[in-house]
Specification:
This protein is α+β, with helices and mostly antiparallel strands and 601 residues long. It folds into 2 domains: 135 residues, no CATH class; 291 residues, no CATH class. The chain has 14 helices and 23 strands. Strands 1-2-3-4-5-6-7-8-9-10-11 form an 11-stranded antiparallel beta sheet, with helices on both faces.
Length: 601
């Protein structure tokens, strides 16, 4: 009994002692041996060498500290003096100018390149202020060049694309060379001349700055496609006719005679005259002849009709050239090399060949058949092995063998001495007569086959018109009388009945195109001048170079829009009211009616 009680006492005593011993064991020992709870493992994951500091230790307004390898914290580690750290960091830091020592290595980091040791993302400062910027540019980066402007190596503006889609090219002196806008092409030639070409569907409109030109429309005759051009020249309206054909990948038009004569008359104009003719021209007192008197002198006598026709064609081209000069405010008379008798003889030989073509084609037309373009167009001309001489019929810019551009103007003379290379769309011609500032005489320049065909057409047309003049003036002013049977009037070709009649309102249409071209050109030049103030300057009459600045400018009634723009420059604003337009300048308003000055305010 007593032993049993003693056993209970010992057991109770041992339990009490065990409990006391358990209470005496440090809690840290128990925690070291106790496995962690799952909840605590989720809240505090195991630390790695790139572990970020606690969120409470990060300042809200500064970048996160660099991730570095931290030694495990022990009981003996000295506490961090937070007071001293905050006191040292209390001054504001400019991340652009201040370099802060690296506390890990006690060195000053290199600030020449952005520090990306933290991670691949930019800092908060870079995100807020320098997104997409290059720090090397500084606070005021240089202005970017306009992608719509093309400049030469010297900085000169060569071309410009406007906000409206216009494309302009400029010469070395800043003058406009050409402008392309939608279906319109504006080309500036020498002496201030201008050529405007508009293609709208099957209609082609070609005019100069003075409103002369033509409108081209297609038609067909017995299944053969043809085109008609209604011309307006110095108040006269008439039609000319052409046959389209394809040659070397180009779409060309060859002239078709509209008037045919009887065989006796063709013999009269084709053979030499029995007695040389001293003919008295009626244009000796005209302004154009007085201006170009140093360049062109008619022959003292004419042994052949072809030489008479050569002077007739030259005179017609020079009259047109003078009109171009008048529009450009020419003042001084021409003072340059003269057209030699040898060159005029070459022109007469070319006219003789064209007279033969006129006679052959008249026979086909009389049988209601169309002439073959291969027999009268460029194919025959380029493949017959002969040299051919042409009178330039409208202004064009060409290039010489060195790539230098120069202008050809009406009345210049060029000679084709060798055919172009196979499949070439341009040919080299020699300049055998040039009016002063045009392409240098004797130089070889490249002319497109399109321009060559158009020049040939103009000569053929002038020959056909000149034949009518020969018949009208036979027996007058020294001209010999025609042989019997040659007096029969010319017959109009039958295909003319199928062609659209001449449009008597063509003058208004051409003037409208001139007004539209003026507005397009003024708009694009105004925009381009924001890039370079020298753009758009026009030369003074009779000489090269930019227009004089600061001198008195006279605006008179009847002047065209292009004349005013040449004198005043591009306006600040254009008010378009249809036939009435107002050009607003800083000190005046110029009012145009139908393209001519009607009032100045």
């Amino acid at each position: 009994m007593s032993s049993h009680r003693s056993m209970k006492f010992i057991t109770a005593t041992s339990f009490a002692a065990a409990v006391g011993l358990f209470l005496l064991v440090p809690s840290s020992v128990l925690r070291a041996d106790e496995p962690p709870k799952k909840e605590e493992r989720k809240k505090a994951p195991a630390k790695t060498e790139h572990a970020a500091p606690a969120r409470s230790e990060r300042p809200a307004s500064t970048p996160a500290p660099a991730r570095t390898e931290r030694p495990a914290r022990t009981e003996s580690a000295p506490p961090v003096d937070r007071t001293r750290t905050r006191q040292a960091d209390s001054a504001p830091i400019n991340p652009r100018t201040t370099t802060v020592p690296d506390r890990r290595t006690n060195t000053v980091p290199d600030r020449t390149a952005p520090d990306r040791t933290r991670d691949s993302r930019p800092s908060n400062f870079e995100n807020r202020n320098n997104v997409g910027n290059d720090r090397s540019r500084g606070p005021n980066p240089p202005a970017r060049s306009n992608p719509n402007v093309v400049r030469s190596s010297s900085g000169r503006v060569e071309s410009y694309r406007s906000n409206s889609g216009s494309e302009a090219k400029f010469r070395s002196d800043g003058r406009v060379a050409s402008i392309r806008h939608n279906d319109m092409v504006i080309t500036h030639g020498a002496g201030g001349s201008r050529r405007i070409v508009v293609e709208r569907g099957d209609r082609v409109i070609v005019t100069s700055g003075n409103g002369h030109g033509y409108v081209q429309r297609p038609f067909a005759y017995r299944g053969t496609p043809l085109v008609t051009r209604t011309y307006y020249v110095r108040g006269v309206v008439y039609n000319s006719y052409y046959r389209p054909y394809s040659y070397r990948g180009l779409s060309l038009n060859v002239y078709v005679p509209v008037r045919t004569y009887n065989p006796v008359f063709y013999g009269f104009v084709y053979r030499p005259w029995v007695t040389p003719v001293r003919y008295s021209w009626g244009w000796y007192s005209t302004p154009w002849y007085g201006y170009y008197g140093g360049y062109f002198t008619p022959a003292p006598y004419y042994p052949t009709p072809s030489l008479w026709l050569a002077d007739y064609i030259i005179a017609a081209r020079l009259a047109d050239a003078y009109q171009d000069q008048a529009n450009a405010r020419a003042q001084a008379a021409y003072n340059g090399p003269a057209l030699s008798p040898a060159v005029k003889q070459d022109i007469a030989m070319e006219v003789q060949r064209q007279l033969e073509m006129e006679r052959n084609e008249s026979q086909a037309i009389s049988r209601n058949s169309m002439p073959d373009p291969n027999a009268s167009g460029l194919p025959r001309l380029l493949e017959d092995g002969l040299s051919h001489t042409f009178i330039v019929s409208y202004n064009m810019d060409v290039q010489d063998q060195n790539g230098q551009s120069c202008p050809l103007t009406r009345g210049d003379v060029m000679k084709l001495t060798a055919p172009p290379a196979p499949n070439a769309q341009s040919a080299y011609v020699q300049i055998v007569a040039s009016k002063g500032g045009d392409c240098r005489m004797g130089s070889n320049v490249m002319v497109s086959l399109q321009d060559l065909q158009d020049t040939l057409n103009q000569m053929r047309e002038s020959v056909n018109q000149g034949m009518g003049e020969l018949q009208t003036n036979a027996g007058k002013n020294g001209m010999p009388a025609m042989p019997r049977g040659a007096e029969a009037p010319a017959q109009t070709a039958s295909f003319v009945q199928s062609a659209p009649p001449p449009d008597q309102s063509i003058a208004n249409e051409l003037q409208q195109q001139v007004r539209e071209a003026d507005k397009v050109e003024a708009d694009v030049v105004t925009e381009a001048r924001q890039e370079d103030s020298s753009i758009g300057a026009q030369p003074p009459a009779g000489g090269p170079g930019p227009a004089p600045q600061g001198g008195p400018v006279t605006i008179g009634l009847g002047q065209t829009i292009s004349q005013v723009v040449d004198a005043m420059g591009s306006p600040k604003q254009i008010v378009d009211l249809g036939p009435k337009q107002i050009y607003v300048y800083s000190n005046m308003k110029v009012i145009f009616m139908d393209g001519k000055v009607s009032d100045v305010q």
